[in-house]
Write a structure and sequence with these properties.
The protein is α/β, with parallel strands linked by helices. The chain has 15 helices and 19 strands. A hairpin with a 6-residue loop joins strand 12 and strand 13. The model has no long low-confidence stretch (mean pLDDT about 90).
Length: about 500
Amino acid sequence: MQFQFHPYLFNPLYWILKWAIHQENIRYIKIYGGSSAAKTYTITQVLTYEAVTKGSSSMVLRKFGVDIEDSVYADFKEVGQLLKYNEVETFIKRLIRVDNGAIIRFRGLDESEKLKGLKGFRYLYYNELSLFDEADFDQGRKRLRGMKGQKIISDWNPIIQTHWIKTNIIDKDTWTNVELTKEMIGAPTKYCMLDPEHSFVKINSTGNTLLIKTTYKDNYWVVGHPSGKGGFHDKHVIADFESDKIKKPNDYRIYGLGEWGLIRTGSEFWKSFDESLHTRPLPPYQQGTIHVSLDNNVHPYVTVSIWQIDAQKKIIQQIHELPCESPDNTAKKAAIKFVAWLNKVNCQDMVYIYGDPSANARSTVDDDGRSFFDKFRAHLKESGIKYIDRVQKSAPEVAMSGSFINDIYAGEFDWTITINTSCRYSIDDYCMTKEDQEGKVLKKREQDKTAGISYEKYGHFTDAKRYFITTVLKSEFEAYKSRHKKRRMVEV
């Protein structure tokens, strides 16, 4: 059955996606971006069109089955009704049957091994890919086979920069802009291109993956159709985005423009840290003293944060990070990586060491009883690195040190703190570390089923920062504690 629709009913992503799924060399289509970009809805339109007009079946996946009915399945039902496809579609629980024999099946993927029965499906769609584990995605890659032109489509809203989608897929490939035209994608309207300022279409080096970024500015049912004759101009949604652009630039950057980052909830330990204000690209090293602050937790990594200070300008900068994951999560191997970095940047200056005082405790594991810091310092000495140990006898009070550094971020002191944008693990840690009811770091543990261990995912770069800053600004911190102690006495 043939259907005719006015082309102004569709956003640019629709025409691009319709073209992309018929490119023989493209296996993966990955779509991410901001809120209100209609990513899922547009994918739904295309997969429904393919089922009704081409007889192509799709498997639609959500991480948790309980979410299906109120999310992507509802979008498919709405598309079918609005475009009159329901004349040839039958909706059953988590299944759509088309008169021509095509089906669209919905499945929750609570465990990766449950991904079975992909025979006969041309399209595999991961809705909200960021909720899935990498193993879930790998299972789909391996099991979608046996038919020409099969595609794996995924969409998501960008979150933390250390998410596996970014670190293991996007960052490990080389991407080139795809210069599309109306004629190239066969669109019947000139209004088929994404916003050139904030959106893009890119292809990877092997030519098998298309990466598309889109925002609310590409949704004609938010900004109105550029012809002035279609879509919908939602003045309230636009006003909210414009307000965030001024008052909450980080929220606008993430929700509005679809950039990688985290939305603040109010429960963060670093309440005054703002990624849009306190991070920027910094040189990897400027001649002068290096400050290294350590946290000796083994999982998820041994923490090595690297800083420099301009005392005259009262500037503190985190210039680099070394999250030493397995197999480098020991004192000596972390020290080896640190020394390698010092040599790489040709640092000949003094190194000052900070960190958790408990890591000075003698080990009961080694026969020689050496502590974490004993081993770290030993390798520095063997490598000819000049260092001064500034590890304190006791750790600073968590809530007080957090409040002190938050006030620095808030501009209550002459000092400023800036984090290099390349320090992605640190920035995620500063955004994700939560506060408990006593104002301390919330020690929430997570399970690594593969390794069979539980560990604290966040808080390690946070602790390293506290050890460092409360030591280098010791006099300011002592005065700060004294003022707060007197204030509490007056309140009592």
